[in-house]
What we know:
Blueprint: E1 2-3, H1 4-11, H2 16-23, H3 27-36, H4 46-51, E2 71-72, H5 111-115, E3 137-138, H6 144-160, E4 164-167, H7 187-195, E5 207-211, E6 214-232, E7 235-238, E8 255-272, E9 281-285, H8 296-305, H9 307-379, H10 384-401, H11 406-412, H12 416-419
Parallel strand pairs: 3-6
Antiparallel strand pairs: 1-2, 4-5, 5-6, 6-7, 6-8, 8-9
Amino acid sequence: MTTREELYELVWSIPMTKVAEKFAVSGTYMARVCSALEVPRPERGYWAKLEVGKAPPRPQLPEASPSNQLSWLRGDDLSSSRFHATKATSAPHKARVQHVLSGIHALVQGAKQHFEKGYKVESGQLLRPYKRQLVDVTASASGLDKALAFASELFNALESAGARVGFGCGKEISNRPNIDEHETITKLKTRQHRYTGQHLWRPSSPTIAYVKNVRFGLAVIEMTEEVLMRYVNGKYIRESEYEPTKRPRSYGEQTWTTTKDIPCGRLRLIVYSPHLDVAWSMSFQETKKRTLTQDVSRIVKSIKRSTEDVQKEIHEADHRAELRIQQWEAQQERWRREEDQKQIAWSVRDSREQLSQAIEAWSKAVSIEQFFKQVEERAGNLPETERAIVEERLRLAREFIGMQDPFKSLLSWKTPGERYVPLDARS
Length: 427
């Protein structure tokens, strides 16, 4: 069992990958353990900065609140209440009185001015602010106040119920799905939205609600509806607002009709799991008769009821991730073994070829030496004048051939084991 204090000291002494290896889990899962125990961990690039003496000081371990998980054991459910047993010496705390929060939520305060400053869009279209570190709300200029007000009320209701709402932490890898703005979603519109190049504004960090140690992404969007529009002399207006001109036809008024997706003023809330490998989501949307504000309490209850299902999917995703890592490691080991066998075969082949060359060199040297020896023996039976001529020619031949050293080839020969040491033979 690892306590918060032990985990805190560990993650600030060695990189997270090493910590994950120590517990035989993935780095992503280890990060979730730190989040569950609310243990701060080094940001990306910390260890490189530490080597050059430029790392920021490590933060203090925050005091554990009554709801904090105080220890962790590999295989435990991170949402388990087992950790309460570790505080057996402390007096049981009283049930916390939940206060109903009201007013403008901190994530929404000051957001409007940033939404109103953005890229140019057609009149009545969804806004695209320059700033991306904003609450995850997408709306038109006319629907912005309503969308921000609902987001604020929802966040307050979640925090009143014990959740925590904020921007996704940079240390947490999050995945925000593509949001479809159409009020009526069809397969055709989904394909059009994906392939026609349309794109909506999206924040740099998702808006996250932490409910019972489970992360939920929250996105509020003003939906669009198909509206028959009429082009009249350079701009589009609703067909219902068009009044035919009373001018003579000679003026040649340019006009035609087409359908466009126009913000309708009704909102949709998308609640999703920001976990990379979890596709869970649910949505709530307004109708002409009922607003999302009327359903805030129902939405909060639905999110709280979903924690176990999402937690289960996250565990399954982590299990799949660990299986992928194991498969990848097994594949790497297979490749290493295959390469090892290739290297062994090549070392045997090359050693045999070099030894054959040494043998040939030896045979050649012996043959040359025998040639000179036999010539010298026969030259001894020749007359003196002829013998002198032959001996001189032998001397020139020896100088031309050079000294033959068959031991040199043998000494330079390498055995297969000297060329390559197999994996199984390495210590």
